[in-house]
């Protein structure tokens, strides 16, 4: 990972509305949810954290600068590994999830 790379960073949120479907496959009920948003690497700091600029239009964090720990970052290789993994026991859901990760990996550098 080097300056200029497009990566994903972890964003934690909380669902309040139990009646809406939020994802595919669906997540039901209120509670914590983990999202991965796109960000551009600016630099790696001496303490190991990475300074990124969020590049995820439509997300409330878009345009903000963040300092994140490496374990809060997914690189292209990480997402490609997910795309090749068994992610769900249902073959149709698994295929959808793998395709979802392939599309994301294609966007990362």
Helix and strand arrangement:
Blueprint: E1 6-15, E2 31-44, E3 50-54, E4 65-68, E5 73-74, H1 76-83, H2 91-107
Antiparallel strand pairs: 1-2, 1-5, 2-3, 3-4
| Domains (count) | 2
Parts with pLDDT < 50 across at least 5 consecutive residues: none
Task: Please state roughly what percent of the residues sit in beta strands, choosing from under 5%, 5-15%, 15-25%, 25-35%, 35-45% or over 45%.
Answer: 25-35%
Given helix and strand content, the structural type is: alpha+beta
Major beta-sheet overview: 5 strands, antiparallel
Give the averaged pLDDT, no decimals.
Answer: 90
Shape, per Cα inertia axes: globular
Overview of this structure, please?
It is a single chain. A hairpin with a 5-residue loop joins β2 and β3 (about 50-55). The relative contact order is 0.21. The longest helix has 17 residues, at about 90-105. This protein folds into two domains: about 1-75, no CATH class; about 75-109, no CATH class. It has helices at about 75-85, 90-105, and strands at about 5-15, 30-45, 50-55, 65-70, 75. With about 110 residues, the chain is α+β, with helices and mostly antiparallel strands. α1 (about 75-85) runs antiparallel to α2 (about 90-105). It has a five-stranded antiparallel sheet. The model has no long low-confidence stretch (mean pLDDT about 90).
Summed up:
With 109 residues, this protein is α+β, with helices and mostly antiparallel strands. Helices cover 23% and strands 32% of the residues.
Keywords:
globular, 109 residues, five-stranded antiparallel sheet, 5 strands, alpha+beta, 23% helix, 2 domains
């Amino acid at each position: 990972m080097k300056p200029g790379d497009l990566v994903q960073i972890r964003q934690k949120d909380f669902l309040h509305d139990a009646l809406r479907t939020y994802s595919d496959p669906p997540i039901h009920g209120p509670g914590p949810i983990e999202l991965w948003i796109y960000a551009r690497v600016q630099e790696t700091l001496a303490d190991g954290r990475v300074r990124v600029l969020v590049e995820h239009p439509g997300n409330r964090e878009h345009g903000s600068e963040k300092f994140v720990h490496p374990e809060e970052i997914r690189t292209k290789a990480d997402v490609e590994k997910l795309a090749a993994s068994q992610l769900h026991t249902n073959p149709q859901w698994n295929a959808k999830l793998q395709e979802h990760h392939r599309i994301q990996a294609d966007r990362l550098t």
